[in-house]
Structures
1.
Amino acid sequence: MRSMSDTIARLNAASARLSAGAPAPAGSARLQPLTDFGPNPGALAGWSYVPDSREVLPLVVVLHGCTQNAAGYDRGSGWSTLAERYGFAVLFPEQSRSNNPNLCFNWFASEDTTRDRGEVASIRQMIATMTEQYPIDSTRVFVTGLSAGGAMTSAMLATYPEVFAGGAIIAGLPHGSAKSVPEAFDRMRGHGHVSDATSAAAVGAASRHPGPWPTISVWQGDADATVSAVNADRIVGQWRIVQGLPEAPDVEDSVDGQRHRAWTRPDGKIAIETYTVAGMGHGTPLATSGTTAAGTAMPFMLDVGISSTWHIARSWGLLTDEARVAPSDAAQRDAPSRVPEPIQTTPTTRAASIQDTIEAALRSAGLMR
């Protein structure tokens, strides 16, 4: 078991990293508020972009990370830019400070990650409203997210697998891996994970869905000091058991200079794939130049020469049609709109006691309400 001094040192380091982050720039002017989407038991907000079209559109649900909001994550990741260019819809659920002081989705709380309860239910209600109000293809709904948003992506895929054709988890954690604040910190550091079979059982218990299952894409930096790279392997193990796939991947190659592995189905289509980005810390991998460019570099949105947004969208078949607008036109329309709230930090240097220090760091990491 870790010593108290080691635990405090890790908590202080986590808080310091968050305190050093600058507020994210304003986001895309494309996003419009989504209102009246149901009882909203998780008390979330929703933002969306739907291009003008008579065609039936795919939908991508995008979940921001801690200290971020919908508009900032959209600007950083470039999702609505690709949506406008290629003709698909995007939905951005957004956390509130009343739910979590640092705007983290509560991925470790059972009341928010159980089917038809809390935050996962609110996100499901948003998706249902989008499919009712717009020409959304219900067979082509996808979900992705970073960090706490990545962990909540795991929860959405487990609790509503029948809703999604695919999911992409960036620096996230397996569904059901933590049920308390101490467990959440341990799993983030890579400690205390259960066996892959036990982890897969958590997915099986999350819904009555018998399959088929969504495709899974896992993205992870091998130098991530916030969410250990061990978690990427545990996500793969969880879904590999669920889908009855072998331990060894069918494909091992390099994509844009980064390690790529894939497990395929009998029909040859990819069921699970992973991208391991060498030397990357905690954040969403971007390429801000070149033919796959998408997004803008900012805190936790890292220009490392590989665009997760572009590759994820391509793997979901969203980039196959001719672009609706030229990239230069889309970029010009990426003007700032609303300005995100400043990042809230709680410097641990002000803590008056060990307990205060621990609680301050937990709040900074979004692990205590």
2.
Amino acid sequence: MLYGLLDLSFWGYVAVTLVMTHITIASVTIYLHRHQAHRALDLHPAVSHFFRFWLWLATGMVTREWVAVHRKHHARCETPEDPHSPQVLGINKVLWEGAELYKAEAAKPETLDKYSHGTPNDWMERHIYSPYNGRGILLMFLIDLLLFGMPGITVWAVQMMWIPFFAAGVINGIGHWWGYRNYETEDASTNIVPWGVLIGGEELHNNHHAYASSAKFSTKWWEFDVGWLYIRLLSALGLARVKKVPPKPVLVPGKEKVDVDTLSAIITNRLQVMAQYAHNVVQRVYRDELRKADGGYRGALKRAKALMVREESLLGEEGRQRLQNALNISQSLQTVYEYRQRLQAIWMQRTASQENLLQSLQEWCRQAEATGIRALVDFSRNLRRYSLQPA
């Protein structure tokens, strides 16, 4: 029989396919990623089980395996132990063979033993979902065939390819290779686009790596995370409870004393602090220096623009040399770059006492304001206003 129970137009089949793949996307980002892997939210048992059942049908993925591989990715990001880093394995390998890399890592007992804690281990998981994960895919094929007839084969094929390509390939590959970065994390994560619709918000990958335990991936007003929209709807219905979102800096007008509260607020919001430093200090001084530079130096400055705010551990030898060439041109740029490194070093002091950290921050502000560099002075004075207390 050519057609199944539902005889749809061409665009009808397209719409159904998009809806079904989008349910799968929502299941991956809300259930597997934000709920199971990072515990950023709690889900009502009925919602949680629906997502698990749907993933069994649409992907055959086992919760325990997916969570373990993803947690290891965060724990060993951009190292040879990372299951799917394009910085290590190359972009083509991860983009086109991401699903195979996932399967290879999921087959390692040591990965499952170390990183899968807290995942479902009920009767359905032990007797249906895990041992018969391939049966779900077969059942979905039969359902598509029954509902749509021969066109259902195409619907099913698109369903089966969507997550392996977009999640395992695009997000794990391009999401660590190309895009824009709001935060200079120690990994190479990027935001591919500011509108996380295609894969449920997962395109905002740099934001996620900056705040891995956050249920919300968008951090700028112009970014849209559709997964977060669904979470808010579930929360409004009493079917989800958000546990954590990115911290928001509190700035107290008139606050001038650098105290323990200031220190704690800056450490809590350190990624936003460094992003503000890059925008309000480094880029501001860069523009001033670029205007003053003659033709011989302008090229060197332009080639190093992005490197001036890049996480230092991500700079290769060539990048370091280009950066140094640019800093040698301008004493002001050299100064603000050094102060950037010094500020970051304050919260990197793992063994320092709170008193020593506070003294380091107070000294940083005093010396920064003594440089006379307007952008640095303004930033330091604004830094004094940071607080954990409501304004």
3.
Amino acid sequence: MSAAGFAAEAAKLPAFIRRDWKIALSYRAVFVADVLGLASQVFVFFFIAKLIDPGALPTYGGTVPSYLAFVVIGLVINLTAGVLLYTVANSLRQEQMMGTMEALLSTPTSGATLQFGSVAYTLMLVPIRAAALLTAIGLLFGLDLHVSGALPALALLLCFLPFTWGLGLISAGLVVTFRRGTNATGFVVTALGLISGAVFPIAMLPGVLRTIAEWNAFAIAIEGVREALIGGSGWGAALSDMARLVPLSLAGLALGVLCFRWAMQRERRRGTLGQY
């Protein structure tokens, strides 16, 4: 694609963002429900934390965290991943249900622009949302988090998002092909979340699962953010984690793009793209 063509495609992205912003304003209850859902989980873990011996938790930068600080970071990152994952599939499903998918595809807009445009608003909102949630929970429950670790933690989160986006594109491909598919992808995400160390230390896992967890993008992101916010480890540790996380994220995104492209081409050949 030429520079002029790339600029023309990029100029279309604000239209997607404005559309999704207006939709979000129309359905404020969804955002409130997400926040209340996370708040209820934090409230439950607040009392569970009273039963957990901090000595059983790993240390970060020589700091022994409270169980609440340990689990809150895992919950927020998993929620962030879930929001992006389901946004990709649900936005495509909405286009199918409203009958606008074929109209969009008939415009001189590339498939990559449609894929990125469908999540551009969420990609902008998710890091801000995660930072706001962590800040609010930290202030409310008096969590001892290092402010100096905020930027390394944000950088790790941004490196992690393409991996989740790739899973979302796989889910979107399943939706295009089978008109359903979020449940299957949701199962995979749940499995990855269980071995991510979000709610219990990875060291407690059996040997095989512990080995898998070492290359689980969820686990790398969560542990990296904990090192930054709880241990105050700074950019040195964050860059080391990013060196492991970026290849996984790029591979996940590439796989998602290929799966989604294959699904779209298949449905176009069959003439069933507009069916729902």
